[in-house]
Specification:
Elements: H1 2-19, E1 30-33, E2 45-47, E3 52-59, E4 68-79, E5 88-95, E6 100-107, E7 116-128, E8 133-143, E9 152-159, E10 162-164, E11 171-174, E12 184-187, E13 192-196, H2 200-203, H3 207-215, E14 219-221, E15 233-242, E16 248-258, E17 268-274
Parallel strand pairs: 2-8
Antiparallel strand pairs: 1-3, 3-6, 4-5, 4-7, 7-8, 9-10, 9-17, 11-12, 13-14, 13-15, 15-16, 16-17
Length: 275
């Protein structure tokens, strides 16, 4: 009887220890988005033409400790509000090993469109040697940030009845009267001519700032006649036009140069910049 009792005790002990072994209910490896300065996060709106970082960190399951085998990244790009059909859809597969893996890359987008121009979707998937996998997704809204205005050189030229450089700004150089010593620059029909304080030129960098200067109490005028036609000189004048196509032009007049006399008269150049 003692042997039987001992055998029963051993059986009960085996059953007890077996029932305490934890069951692995979630054997998948882990994957998470890398966070930090300049790293994107899910749902973020990012600007085009800017550099960002995206990253994913994968680890083996803490209970199974199975090594990692593959990492894949699916990238979809959508334009406008059309979310059912991506204009770009590709998947990168990378063979990996060990218990940890970090994927990082630079994110940079350039598209030609309007405000919210589209969406990018990154789905990262990690799979271990047992074929268990896990995924996470980062969705980014793509926004076209306002770009700095382009600055171009201008040359308003007149010799006799010939003139150039003014047309695209909606201006013309009216022939000076015999006793008039200053250039008479006027707006064409339908064009509005403005004058500004000289500091406005440096205050305007973006299109929205330029439009605000024209709409916020800007002074209109019928003629710009501050440039002398009798001597070379430096200037710091800021004028502007609203042309018939609705565009605003900001003009910085910086100098006037008078050339040698010709049969048609003195050639005159009014130099500066526009944006």
């Amino acid at each position: 009887m003692k042997k039987l009792a001992l055998a029963l005790l051993c059986l009960v002990s085996v059953a007890f220890f077996a029932s305490c072994t934890p069951e692995v209910t979630d054997p998948e490896p882990s994957i998470a988005i890398v966070t930090g300065d300049n790293y994107v996060y899910d749902g973020q709106t990012i600007d085009l033409y800017h550099d960002y970082m995206i990253g994913f960190h994968a680890t083996s399951n803490s209970q199974t400790s199975k090594e990692l085998a593959t990492f894949s990244l699916n990238v979809k790009l959508y334009e406008g509000t059309e979310e059912s059909r991506p204009v770009y859809d590709t998947t990168y597969n990378i063979a990996i090993s060990g218990s940890e893996y970090t994927y990082e890359e630079e994110v940079y987008f350039e598209l030609a469109s309007r405000d919210l121009v589209g969406k990018a979707e990154y789905t990262a998937t990690v799979t271990d040697v047992d074929g268990k996998s896990n995924s996470t997704t980062v969705t980014l809204n793509l926004n076209l940030a306002e770009q700095p205005l382009e600055i171009v050189d201008i040359d308003f030229y007149r010799l006799g009845n010939n003139q150039s450089g003014l047309e695209e700004y909606g201006l013309y150089w009216e022939r000076n009267a015999k006793d008039e010593t200053h250039a008479q620059i006027k707006p064409k029909d339908g064009v509005i001519l403005y004058k500004f304080d000289s500091n406005v030129w440096n205050e305007v960098t973006f299109e929205s700032e330029k439009a605000a200067k024209f709409s916020d109490g800007a002074v209109t005028t019928s003629v710009y006649n501050n440039v002398s036609t009798s001597a070379n000189a430096l200037y710091d004048d800021v004028i502007g036009t609203r042309t018939t196509d609705g565009k605003y032009h900001l003009i910085h007049v910086t100098s006037c140069v008078i050339g040698a006399y010709q049969s048609a008269g003195y050639p005159i150049h009014i130099y500066g910049q526009a944006k």
